[in-house]
Amino acid sequence: MKAGTVVTLRVAREVPFGFFLTDDKEDVLLHHSEVTEPITVDQQLEVFLYQDHEGRLSATLTIPYVQIGQYDWVEVVEVKKNLGAFVNIGLKKDILVSMDDLPALFSLWPTIGDKLYCSLKVDNKDRLYGKLGTEEVMRALAVPAEPEIFNRNIKGTVYRLLLVGSFIMTEEGYLGFIHESERKEEPRLGQEVEGRIIDVKEDGTINVSLLPRTHEQIDEDADKIYEYLQGRGGSMPYWDKSLPEDIKKRFNMSKGSFKKALGKLMKEHKVVQEDGWTHIKEK
């Protein structure tokens, strides 16, 4: 009998703390806390085998979707820096995805609430661990995208990280790639991201950008500048002729982006410029 598998066993006997089940070669305990229905001796039960908190092989009547060779999305419920990420597969005991299978940078590890696509595996000591879906597994799961979805907004979960970018599985089942130039920061493994489709490739995969569309970015930059003005009492020592490095340091945007956003605010009659300063226009 191996952890991570579903087996049918006979109820051999009842003990004060549960039932011993057998395949006539080995016995395994079904603890009273795992019993969800009346049980009688010699009854045949379908159970899932796992290790309890003390490392002993145990049985449960709860059959998880995630098993050895069987994948599903599971939620991260705990993270320990020296161990890895624990995921909930529907059992009373959470399953560890080892730090060896997670990104080298801790900042890119999944956090509580993130989702991982996992099955189960056992190590050489028969201990049960979570196993992340490989690229081959994810491609087998994916559905091809059609050209007409170009430029649509999408949501997806990051399942693989590389230096050049991040791979996601979208809610629709499309495989997507986010190049490092199409994001402001690198997302975590297991993080849900929102973006837009910037290319539908011949193989049915998509390229995704997490950056706003041009008009959305101008709106965002304009809001940022206006909020800064409000925080300074309505005036700031920056205008469209300010030095690019000064603009970058204060607003973290290029001079071109700054001028577009400032132009939007002036066109809306929200601000005026004078002698190197920008002021909120009095109503």
From TrEMBL:
Pfam families: CvfB_1st, CvfB_2nd, S1_2, WHD_CvfB. Residues 151-211 form the S1 motif domain. PROSITE patterns: S1. GO terms for molecular function: nucleic acid binding. Gene3D superfamilies: Nucleic acid-binding proteins, Winged helix-like DNA-binding domain superfamily/Winged helix DNA-binding domain. Transmembrane segments: none annotated. Belongs to the CvfB family. This is S1 RNA-binding domain-containing protein. It comes from Lederbergia citrisecunda.
